[in-house]
Amino acid sequence: MKSHPLFGILLLCAMLACAPLSAPRTAEAAAVSSVYDKQPDVTEKELLQFLDLLPQFRQWTRAEKEEAHPILNKGKADFLYSEKAAQWVKEKGWDARRFFCVMGRMAAALVMVEEGGNSMARPKDMPEVSKAELELARKHLGSILKASMDNAQVQ
User: Per DSSP, what are the bridge partners of residue 70?
Assistant: First the structure.
């Protein structure tokens, strides 16, 4: 599927769109050098659970003026989120580091899918993506796009 060159960037913006940051990354996450460190590959079950929650999370971030997005931390891909965002995902049954790891890896995978699997297309603030994660993103592309749309409603 060939798409417009800006598709990956626009999709990433839609997936991660939030208002200005209100607090630094959590102390829990700061103890590890990156949210992606020592994290296993994203599984299909996790991705589907993540996609169920993503529209609600995006609506919550807009309402609360919260920000959650990939960053470079000391030259290494990481993910920025507030204590408040971490608490919100914990209340929904997720480990915060894992939730934001899944978000960052799938955002990076989407950019790579848009660029034909080219890992060089992945921005430096996004993590490396395994072959299995890239295939998972390809397999569930429609669901990822649907969950990332602005008109998604909280159930």
Answer: 79
| Cα atoms in the Cβ-side hemisphere of radius 13 Å centred on 36 | 23
Break the chain into its structural domains and give their ranges.
Answer: 7-148
Distance set, CA 86 to CA 11, 55, 79, 95, 141 (Å): 23, 16, 12, 8, 26
Q: For the whole model, what pTM was predicted?
A: 0.78
Asked whether the predicted pLDDT for residue 65 surpasses 80, the reply is yes
**DSSP result, 115-135:** TTS-GGGS-TTS----HHHHH
Query: Cβ contacts of residue 85 below 8 Å, gap of 6+?
Result: 61, 66, 68, 96
Q: Which residues of 30-58 are buried (b: 16+ CB within 10 A; e: fewer)?
A: eeeebbbeebeebeeebbebbbebbbbbb
